[in-house]
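Methods, example record. To illustrate the input and output format used throughout this study, we show the complete record for ABC transporter substrate-binding protein. The sequence lines were provided to the predictor; the line carrying structure tokens was produced by it.
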Amino acid sequence: MKKVLVFLAVLVAVVLFAADPNVLVDATIGEPDTLDPHLAYDTASGEVIYQVYENLIQYKGSSLSEFLPRLATEVPSVENGLITDGGKTYIFPIRKGVKFHNGNDLTPEDVEYSFERGLLYSPAGGPMWMLWYAIFGKYSVADLVEEVAGKPYDELVDENGEPLPEYKDVFVKVYTDYIDPAIEVDGDNVVFHLVRPYSPFLNILAQGSSWSAILDKEWSIEVGLWDGKADTWWKWYDQRKEESPIYDKAMGTGPYKFVEWDRTQQKVVLEANENYWREPAKIKKVIIWGIDEFSTRKAMLEKGDADIAYIPTQYLDQVRGNPDIEIIEGLPTLSVTVLAFNWTIREGSKYVGSGKLDGNGIPLDFFNDVHARKAIAYVINYDAIISDVLKGFGKRVPTALPEGLLGYDPTLPLYNFNLVKARQELMQAWNGEAWKKGFKFGVAYNLGNEARQRAAEMVKMYLEMLSPKIKIDVVGLQWPTFLDATKRGELPIFILGWLADFPDPDNFIFTYYDSKGDYSGRQGAKFREFVSTPRPELGGKSLDELIETASAEIDSAKRAELYAKVQKFVVENAISVPLYQPIAVRVHRKWLKGWYHNPMRPGDDYYAYYFEGK
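The corresponding predicted structure is encoded as:
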């Protein structure tokens, strides 16, 4: 009955827009995590930010390596003189005549402020590490503070996060002597000074990268972001998600204005910016609607109440043959979905039962044992997920590095579904105590993602099949709740995908396997200790050191060899378990025109769309 009521409520809500050629309804799953561009690090958030904000440059159509100017009037290159100093200086001439949605003019100072605010905010688990690494060769403002002060950040501040009196000058110096000179205004230009050449820099700045979106400095300060001063920035450092003044609001220069984010209905409403510096968007209103129930999305698409719908590949056959629906298959992706382990689960987690190895829970470091990790790797029926759930729209990969990038090695071994080996591993886990006593923990997935749901259910079904002493709870969570639980380190295992931030192997290898990578915090302190400790099998280096050596290597062949060594170690130690690399499918009404594929885009480019025959 509940599903019926949800279905009817949604249909009543959209019927007014069904035949309106000025309104586009995108029926998807979930909702944004945050609208703050410097914290947003998921596709649901990025899709909204993509429409409202703009970057200095953009990808050229479907290309992953060619760029066009956006808020800059030229794409820097050595040939046009805008990349100098051996690749360490990038000059961006800023476009004139562009206005923010509130009517303010875009200026070079807005660009400078946007990047400086993001670097100083430096939220844990956010995307700003990319700009930190590209510009400074570090991963956060805390790293720079520590280098300047010679002590860890936490030892330099009081319980309120304020610098201790003897270190306040250090914090001011971090801005005045390092961050401010690295991004400077020079007339109509904004100039970036990198500490060393970094070839993916333009990819990190391109449209689709929310972390490089341009904010209005005046508006940002008015709503409560960093005030632009050198002696206050730490007040905003690592501000929590809901505390950000732009957590649930957005205001940029883009083709669409932000109107509303209805959290109750998981609905975002956008309207065309009629004062856009290019031609205004042809479609005047966009509704991005998170509808987790597939049958509702399907009915909306079939009736024309939705123009775009997320159709899981296992249900494609249910919409085939409809003459009004277009299905585009076989689209390449730069993405991998991985089951990862939390080696040190957060104290107080509700997903660990008793928190002890007593048959009613697991200890917080349960997955610090390689045999526990391998047991999970053997209870996943990977081929069934790909064939039954994804309907063949996926492929197996040995690690979190997708096929298509440098270093991908199809000869590496794969873990396969094998309950005999799973039992053998469990009998060795925790010196046999895991098998003897049994255990209990919870596996969560984000609602609406049936492939991840199936993987979670497999963990439960096959582990419980091995022994009556094993109990697994499967829990479906709304996307923001699920994401928060992973960030807080509460989930024993978690299933997450990674869509490339930029098309380079470092973006995947670093993210999943380095102690400073984005998923590091979700995998716990013992994971970080493991990958940062020198090991004989790695020639006396740590996995961290090997990854960072590979990222800096300019010889492609040598770089590929280094990544092969990294991945061999990852597989042998079951650091995480790649489930599949998806093959993308696109489904929309045939009256929607203008769609194009670019795997670096976080969702749709509504500005490119128009209706024909709606």
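Annotations derived from this record:
The first strand starts at residue 23 and ends at 28.
The chain has a mean pLDDT of 94.
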